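Quick one:
INPUT:
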């Protein structure tokens, strides 16, 4: 048995996740940009956007991310996972160039939709790419890198956004997708894709690079991939097959359910409005500093998941994450209720919003941030994966759009405390869902996962 060089698949996964860092800059962009656009001295816009404008600025990225998978899904089969992922950078680069020269809210809208399309491409192609280049004992760790990349991107904009001009902010964001293209361009595509296209020579080269082994050393894995892909090619999947085939239906319920609850936790509200949440709460720390602290915690906690996921398993970590988010959001809602009622207790616990949000993002980034995407990358057979991944990702962003678009209205109707209690209650439902429906895939090959979904031992 050849030992191989495991670091090579880690290198490919890390470079592919520079696209996730670009995604993070788009998801966290609003936090610093909102305050700049409200200040005519800093804003390049001719007028201050209205509250309704800001709700669209926040929610158009999830809306674009809803559309992106339906373009990216078919492209992963036609041009490959690698080139579809590289195509995401076109949307990111174009959006930040538009924002550099933007002088109207309409141009900001266009840029945010383009960012959403890029996010949709990344969420579809990156999970497929990493799931297919990973060895069975590393797939959980490598699949968790997406969330780490996203929160690094969020921390990046939290750190630079408040301290530079609006145009400089866009230029600094533009660096990330350019760096992604310059480095990931040299990585191989998925061996599954090469086999699917009948390019066995390229599949061998890809596996030899990713595993650091000789041709003989990768032959057994190549045979397994060929068998899996050939079986899938005989039974090409359609949208109908996602819902009529028992195994596909189970996989879709698990994947789409986890992604929906990821958004129903309220994470996008925290990311998009982080600075304004601290301003509203009257935090004892400056909002920009408190936001940076939250971003640092997100990076640290996301870095923990690759170290523990293949030891503890997906399900245990997801249960821990859902329980922790429920408690943290309940405490945050309690503070806003006390503050709303002008209770003297609120004045003595101004630290609670910071502690609650830090606890929330910590447990989110350990579990419900990275693991739904890792599960999505390994749950579907190759024949149905492009279609099913697009559908599941769409569910994620439909929910994400709804939450961000109508959060302000939700606050007006039930108050900030009611909104956070609602999110906390949905996290409790996520705990029950995970306990009831999610199966453990730790240490399983992609074929073994399909066998389990089909009820075969």
């Amino acid at each position: 048995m050849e030992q191989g060089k495991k670091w090579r698949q880690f290198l490919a996964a890390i470079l592919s996740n520079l696209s996730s860092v670009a995604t993070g800059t788009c998801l966290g962009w609003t936090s610093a940009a909102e305050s700049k656009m409200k200040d005519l001295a800093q804003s390049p816009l001719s007028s201050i956007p209205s509250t309704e404008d800001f709700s669209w600025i926040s929610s158009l990225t999830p809306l674009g991310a809803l559309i992106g998978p339906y373009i990216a899904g078919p492209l992963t089969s036609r041009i490959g996972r690698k080139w579809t992922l590289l195509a995401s950078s076109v949307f990111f680069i174009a959006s930040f160039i538009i924002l550099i020269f933007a002088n109207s809210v309409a141009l900001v809208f266009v840029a945010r939709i383009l960012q959403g399309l890029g996010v949709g491409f990344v969420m579809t192609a990156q999970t497929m790419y990493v799931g297919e280049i990973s060895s069975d004992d590393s797939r959980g760790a490598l699949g968790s890198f997406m969330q780490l990349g996203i929160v690094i991107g969020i921390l990046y904009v939290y750190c630079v956004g408040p301290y530079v001009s609006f145009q400089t902010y866009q230029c600094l964001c533009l660096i990330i997708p350019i760096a992604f293209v310059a480095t990931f361009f040299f990585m191989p595509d998925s061996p599954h894709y090469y086999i699917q296209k009948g390019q066995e020579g390229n599949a061998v080269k890809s596996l030899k690079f990713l595993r650091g082994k000789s041709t003989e050393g990768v032959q057994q894995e190549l045979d397994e991939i060929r068998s899996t892909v050939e079986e899938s090619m005989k039974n090409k999947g359609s949208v109908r097959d996602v819902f009529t085939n028992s195994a596909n239906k189970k996989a879709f319920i698990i994947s789409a359910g986890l992604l929906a609850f990821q958004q129903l936790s309220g994470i996008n509200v925290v990311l998009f409005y982080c600075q304004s949440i601290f301003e509203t709460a009257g935090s004892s720390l400056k909002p920009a500093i408190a936001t940076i602290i939250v971003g640092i915690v997100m990076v640290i906690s996301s870095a923990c998941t690759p170290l523990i996921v293949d030891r503890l398993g997906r399900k245990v970590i997801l249960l821990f994450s859902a329980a922790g988010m429920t408690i943290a959001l309940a405490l945050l809602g309690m503070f806003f209720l006390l503050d709303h009622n002008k209770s003297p207790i609120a004045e003595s616990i101004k630290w609670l919003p910071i502690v609650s949000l830090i606890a929330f993002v910590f447990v989110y980034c350990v579990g419900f941030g990275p693991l739904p995407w890792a599960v999505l990358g390994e749950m579907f057979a190759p024949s149905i994966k492009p279609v099913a991944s697009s559908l599941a990702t769409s569910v994620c962003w439909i929910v994400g759009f709804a939450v961000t678009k109508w959060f302000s209205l939700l606050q007006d109707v039930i108050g900030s405390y009611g909104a956070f209690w609602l999110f906390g209650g949905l996290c409790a439902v996520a705990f029950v869902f995970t306990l009831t429906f999610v199966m453990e895939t730790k240490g399983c090959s992609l074929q073994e996962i399909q066998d389990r979904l089909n009820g075969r031992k």
